[in-house]
Amino acid sequence: MLKECYLTTTTTEPTPTNAPVRLANSPSPCSGRVEIFLNGQWGTVCDDIWDLNNAQVVCQQLGCGRAVSAPQAAQFGQGSGPIWLDDVQCRGNESAITECAHQGFGSHNCRHGEDASVICQATTTTEPTPTNAPVRLANSSSPCSGRVEIFLNGQWGTVCDDIWDLNNAQVVCHQLGCGRAVSALHQAQFGQGSGPIWLDNVQCRGNESDITECAHQGFGSHNCGHGEDASVICQGPNRTTLMSISPFTATTTTEPTPTNAPVRLVNSTSPCSGRVEIFHNGQWGTVCDDLWDLNDAQVVCQQLGCGRAVSAPQAAQFGQGSGPIWLDDVQCRGNESAITDCAHQRFGSHDCRHAEDASVICQVSEQQTLLQASQLICSHDHLEVGVRLDSLLSSGLDPFSGHMAESYCSSYRLHDSKVWYEVDRWSGSCGTVLETNRTHAIYSNSLFFYHQSGDTSTLPKVIPFSCVYPLEINANLTGIINQDLLGQGLSGSGARSTAYISLYRDSRFYFSYQPGWVTLPAGSPLYVGVFSDENDRSLVVVLEDCYITHTTNPDDPMRFFLIQGGCPVNPQQVSVLENGNSSRACFSAQISSLRDTNPYIILHCRLSLCNRIGNTCVPKCRSRRGRRSVHISTQLDLLTIGPITWGQ
User: Fold this and answer.
1) In terms of C-beta density within 10 A (0-12 exposed, 13-18 middle, 19 or more buried), how is residue 244 classed?
2) Which end of the chain has fewer surrounding CB within 10 Å, N or C?
3) What is the pLDDT of residue 369?
4) Which SUPFAM superfamilies did the record assign (predicted)?
């Protein structure tokens, strides 16, 4: 069922930047449905293109630390009252959500089923705690793995897995003399405990001598059930436990910082040569070639595990990049562990253009072997990378240390002797970058693995990957996709989106007719809705052309256009209610003059998908018969509905 269509407008009037914000319908003060107080009313925010940058602004505004997730589809329940914001686009450094770009207060095409939410990594208390409380690992055959339990007030109790990570596990393993922590498990992987839940929101630095010395909510203060009991696996006497649990989830806390920002080489057929790009502040950007030399290239090659630098090309030898230029005047000695450790102008400070993008050519190394041991699946909803466990272990890598470009995206599962990591297929998810051309959408990210030694000075191995999704019929990957868009590493393709058309009974667009022959009430206009099953809200539907024929042949030369170039041919007869805003479009048409002498009509419509990030997708109809040519969108199949006739 297509939701009701609204005519939306965008305003540029000044907005109150101090409007109060709250998180509702959650037991935690740092998670919940986002609500804004304006004009004397609390209202919600629509989840159209809602992402982690938007959530970060809300979390910072409320003093709740880093954003962990940006849930959509009213995950914390549907709100009520007005929907104040839609199409929010934050850079992530704004001081208030109302400072971000948006449609205008109260302008939206949403319902409360699309209310946006956030989950923040809340700050916790550091009140004194008894530091000699006994700790044990329960419900495991190994003394160095199991469910974490603490003895307090005469009772053994568990620990909640909220923000449970490898630093916390490290303290437990060290406290029990079990060596290094290998994994920090969530969701009662060693079974549910009983009795009290003593700790929640534990945040260790990793060097504490006792788990109770770490920051936490306070003893017995929590919002958990035993289905969230935390566990650990330590590098103790029995590491085979690792292979007996599937699936389970681990998280790490080594999020990218300016000194370990992910680096990639793009626009080359080799994984160890190409244009140098750095991921910083949620964006991939390039390096200027001023003072660029072999020492600089050597650091990049070593950082990517690509061996010795052979050449340091300048002047965009591997093509010009796009987006920010992050570094300029880089001066490495050649022994730094990361390019961002070298002397340079501050991030984003430069006097360059992309024609000066720096590149490297390295001596190809063992990374190619790692790529050959990897598998990429490009599904409708996810991008999944699986790597053979034996290849990772033989390379000295910890199979469970992986994460995407955003390091908190580290969930994994075991299947068919591979460890699998996945990311949602939408722009911005875990650092995923979306790029489009006339025929395809390309989603790119990278998977990082660390050495088993746990030595933080040892650089991770990187598996870049890209999934290509066709946006039009008969699109072929060969010769159409520019290698600059695919980047390097693993590449695969997925199925394209499907478009649909429905005829509705009234102007509310609630109830549709069944496909096939449709008989409308006498004098009734057409109420038409078209939509796509595309999940990424960055890609919106544009209704390009709709026309009527009196035969089932869509190529019939006798065509009567209702919409052309996204605009009504006759605004007196056709009203476009929504177009270029979301995954659906709808219009109404009064066509009595076209059906007087004909027993029925057939309606044909053509859609396109448009990447609205950085583009204007709403057709601009400047005159009564204005037309618009869409250069930034790609057409889908022609949709046909009918025959349609009217009763007496």
Assistant:
1) exposed
2) C
3) 67
4) SRCR-like (SSF56487)
DSSP-based three-state secondary structure for 485: helix
| The pLDDT of residue 625 | 41
Residues contacting residue 415 through CB under 8 Å, at least 6 positions apart: 246, 247, 386
> What is residue 12's predicted lDDT score, i.e. its pLDDT?
33
| Stretch (H or E) spanning 172 | helix 166-175
Give the bridge partners for 437, in sequence order.
none
Q: Given this model, what pLDDT does residue 240 score? A: 29
Query: What are the strands, taking DSSP E only, across 14-122?
Result: 21-24, 31-38, 41-45, 67-69, 83-85, 117-120
Structural domains of the chain, ranges and CATH numbers in brackets: 21-120 (3.10.250.10), 135-244 (3.10.250.10), 263-362 (3.10.250.10), 367-493 (2.60.40.3210), 499-646 (2.60.40.4100)
Q: Which residue reads 């995954």 in tokens? A: 583
Length of the chain: 648
Is residue 239 within 8 Å of 153, Cβ to Cβ? no
Residue 255's nearest CA partner among 130, 391, 68 is: 68
Closest CA to 582 of 80, 112, 3: 3
Give the strands of the sheet with 418-424, arranged side by side.
374-378, 382-388, 418-424, 412-415
What distance in Å separates the CA atoms of residue 489 and residue 484, rounded to the nearest whole number?
Answer: 12
Nearest alpha-carbon partner for 487 in 435, 537, 525, 536: 435
Residue 105, H or E segment: none
Per-residue tokens: 565: 């170039």
Residue 587: predicted pLDDT? 93
SS3 167: helix
Among 194, 199, 356, smallest CA distance to 286 is for 356
Q: Strand locations in 340-487, DSSP E? A: 359-362, 374-378, 382-388, 412-415, 418-424, 433-436, 440-449, 461-470
pLDDT at 126: 33
Q: Is 115 in a helix, a strand, or coil?
A: strand
Residues with Cβ within 8 Å of 145's Cβ and at least 6 positions away in sequence, in order, are 137, 190, 231, 232, 233, 234, 236, 238, 241
Contact 606, 554 (CB under 8 A): no
Quote the tokens at residue 244: 């007996």
Q: Please state, rounded to an integer, the average pLDDT across all residues of the chain.
A: 79
CA distances to 13, 53, 271, 383 from 442, rounded to whole Å, are: 35, 21, 18, 11
Q: What pLDDT score was predicted for residue 132?
A: 56
In this prediction, residue 457 carries a pLDDT of 64
Gyration radius from the chain CA atoms: 28
Phi-psi region of 7 (alpha: psi -120 to 50; beta: other; left: phi over 0): beta
| Pairing of the two strands 283-287 and 263-266 | unpaired
**Alpha helices, DSSP H only, in 377-456?**
389-394
Amino acid residing at 112? H
Secondary structure letter of residue 319 according to DSSP: -
Place of tokens 């618009």: 628
Among residues 30, 33, 451, 38, the alpha carbon closest in space to that of 217 is found at 30
Weakly modelled stretches of the chain, pLDDT under 70: 1-18, 27, 122-133, 141, 154, 236-260, 270-271, 305, 364-369, 438, 456-457, 471-488, 593-597, 614, 622-637
Residues 539, 440 contacting (CB under 8 angstroms): no
Residue 288: predicted pLDDT: 95
